[in-house]
Structures are given as structure tokens and as C-alpha cells.
Amino acid sequence: MTKQEKVGFYIELWKQTVDVQKHFNDIELRIRGLALTVLTFVLGGASLAIRDNATVIMFGGHFQLGSLILFLGIVLWLTFYFVDQVWYHRLLIGAVVHGEALEDEIKRALPAAGLTKAITKNSPYTIRVRFFRKTLWSAEIHSTMKIRIFYFTVAAILVVSGILLQLALPTPRH
Predict the structure, then answer these.
(1) Which of 43, 110, 119, 172 is least surrounded by Cβ atoms within 10 Å, i.e. has the fewest?
(2) In terms of C-beta density within 10 A (0-12 exposed, 13-18 middle, 19 or more buried), how is residue 73 classed?
(3) For 102-120, what is each residue's pLDDT tens digit?
(4) How far apart are CA 107 and CA 20, in angstroms?
(5) Cα separation of the two ends of the chain
């Protein structure tokens, strides 16, 4: 096999790898979209329960139905996190690592090759906390941390809202 034929095979492998990357990325975006849809229904259900001041008697106590719906929403939300981050994101990372290895081989014959590595290099985002013009703290966040921030920020809002709702609304006395 000639060097040119080998490069051609590597390019075909790389194309398939990029297709796999796109597939996993698409799955992750669909998961997040579905998670946001479920979140919308959870918030809507909690809102209706709050409007009606609906309560549930459990374990000998009165609980706001809106709070219970929000806590159920947390469970559902974190389930989406599991499927997104723990399941598919790891597969996407594997496909990216494989694409980078193929690009290393292709680069020997075609020095301009490097799309996957360029995307990986430009993906991180640096968060900076500044006071006047001085940076007090900074951290580079990668895709895994971005996903965690997305899911855990919403989860924290649901937890705080559920607790505040339970504590703030009066429960009926029978």
C-alpha cells in the first residue's frame, strides 16, 4: 500500500469518526432539549399546585404539592444529567480522542490537518473574577464542567425553590 493510499484510508476513517462525533453531539443536544421540556412541565405543574395551594399529607405531615413536584423535577433533571454526562458525553470524548489520533497520522502527509484538535483547543472557556482591572481568580472550564454547571445550577435552583415553597406557603390545618 502506498503512502497516498494509506492517507486516503486515514481520511475515510477520520470522516467516519467526525460523523460519530456529530452523532453523539446531536444526542447530547436532544437530551438537553428534552430535559428543558420536562423542566418546563415541572415548573408548570408546580405553578398550578402553588396557585391552588394544594397540599399532600405524607408521613403524618402536610407538604406543598408544588414542593413535591419540584423535588420530583430534581430527580428527573439529574437523570437527564446522568444520561448526558455520564453516558453519552464520555462516548463523544472517546470519538474526539480517536479523531485526534487519526489527525496525527494524516498530519504526517497533510500538515494542515487538525480540525478535531483545533476544536478541542478552542473549546475551553476561562472564567475570570475581576475587581477593577485586576483578576482575582480565574479558571478554565472544559466541556465536562460546562455540562455540570448547566445541570447543577438548575438543580440548585429547584432545591432552593422547593424548600422555600414548603416553608413559605401556609399549610391548611384540619
Answers:
(1) 172
(2) buried
(3) 999 999 999 999 999 999 9
(4) 21
(5) 85
- Residue 88: all three cell numbers together: 453519552
Q: What whole-number distance in Å separates Cα of residue 125 and Cα of residue 143?
A: 9
Among candidates 157, 151, 122, which has minimal Cα distance to 36?
151
Segment (H or E) for 52 = none
- Could you read off the pLDDT of 9-48 as tens digits, one per residue? 999 999 999 999 999 999 999 999 999 999 999 999 999 9
CA-to-CA distance for 138 and 97, rounded, in angstroms?
Answer: 26
pTM equals: 0.87
DSSP state of 114: -
Cβ 138 vs Cβ 124: under 8 Å: no
Query: Angle of helix 65-81 relative to helix 3-51, nearest 10 degrees?
Result: 180
d(CA 28, CA 81) in angstroms, rounded, equals 10
Of residues 2, 7, 5, the one with CA closest to residue 111 = 7
How buried is residue 49: exposed, middle or buried, by Cβ count under 10 Å (0-12/13-18/19+)? Answer: buried
Which residues touch 20 (CB under 8 Å, ≥6 apart)? Answer: 95
